[in-house]
Amino acid sequence: MGKKRKKRIGKCRLCGQQRSLQLSHLLPRSVYRFLLGTNPNHEAPVIMTDRIAVKAHQQTKDYLLCAECEDRFNRNGEKYATSLMRTPKGFKLLDRLNVAPTVSFRIDGTAFSGSDIGIDMDQLAYFALSIFWRAGAHVWKSKYTVKEDYSIDLGEYLEPIRKFLLGGLFPRNMSVMVTTAKDYLSQYFAYAPAPTRGIPVIGFAFLTCGIHFALFLGKPLLPTYQRFCCVRSPRRLLFMRDISAQSMHAAGRLYELGRPAGNMKG
User: Fold this and answer.
1) CB proximity list for 72: less than 8 A, separation 6 or greater
2) How many angstroms separate the Cα of 217 from the Cα of each of 85, 100, 119, 179?
3) What string of H, E and C letters represents the secondary structure of the chain?
4) Strand arrangement of the beta sheet that strand 46-48 belongs to
5) What pLDDT is stored for residue 181 in this prediction?
6) Is residue 250 assigned to a domain?
7) Has residue 183 got a pLDDT over 50?
């Protein structure tokens, strides 16, 4: 029999109740499983940070949420979003967009109306904000990072996101953009939320098996960013394009800064 995990009692970060805490993941367990499943030899994925590059089966997880809030995340967005991602069986969202009518929108890539083609943009937005919130609401420990922790700074926007995740309205001064990757690299790649550089607003982004999520923040938020929001735009927009340059930049930057260790040497 396996080793029985000890119960952890504490304050759930989302609902604030004192409850038995679950071992929560920063990125869904299924994303890691998808990445592992696309490797025919089932080798450990390469974990790259600004300190080290190593093959490891470690997932970023910690005691954060109660069982009720874990289920809330799952049924309001995670289960749906992961069902659309690239898996060993195919890429459901890309297949859907390849036969869907496009809409006119001035942006690099192809635009679609999620509401017109039957994509639940509310669930995708909820999933995106649940990941951004997790990245900002907790310091995630890992032996592979410089300071042995990871977090992003959402500042005053953290609490409005938390209230939204509990059933409130979509926060003001905020935009979520969803992009489906046409390129193979981004379909077999994932990275946690990180700041977006070179834009006139506060931005963060993450990638999970072919679906890229970007969060833009500002008081007030520029109208341009509101127009491509998957929730606020009149036609509930989502996009499709080749994002290999972004993915290669993310991976390349980590590889440049990281040092090979253990089973990565030689």
Assistant:
1) 14, 165, 166
2) 25, 30, 24, 18
3) CCCCCCCEEEECCCCCCEEEEEEEECCCHHHHHHHHHCCCCCCCCEEECCCEEEECCCCCEEEEEEHHHHHHHHHHHHHHHHHHCEECCEEHHHHHHHCCCCECCCCCCEEEEHHHHCCCHHHHHHHHHHHHHHHHHCCEECCCCCCCEECCCCHHHHHHHHHHHCCCCCCCCEEEEEEEECCHHHHCCEEEEEECCCCCCEEEEEEECCEEEEEEECCCCCHHHHHCCCCCCCCCEEEEECCHHHHHHHHHHHHHHCEECHHHCC
4) 46-48, 52-55, 259-260
5) 96
6) yes
7) yes
In a domain, 5, yes or no: no
Residue 142 above 80 pLDDT?
no
Could you tell me if 165 and 157 are in contact, meaning their C-beta atoms sit under 8 angstroms apart? no
Is 176 within 8 Å of 133 (Cβ atoms)?
no
Q: Which of 11-25, 41-55, 243-257 has the highest mean pLDDT?
A: 11-25
* Per-chain mean pLDDT for the chain: 84
d(CA 176, CA 108): 17
Domain that holds residue 181: 10-264
Token pair 């649940």 is found at: 130
145 found inside a domain: yes
In tens, the pLDDT along 51-97 reads: 444 444 557 889 999 999 999 999 999 999 999 999 989 999 999 99
3: in domain: no
Number of domains in the chain: 1
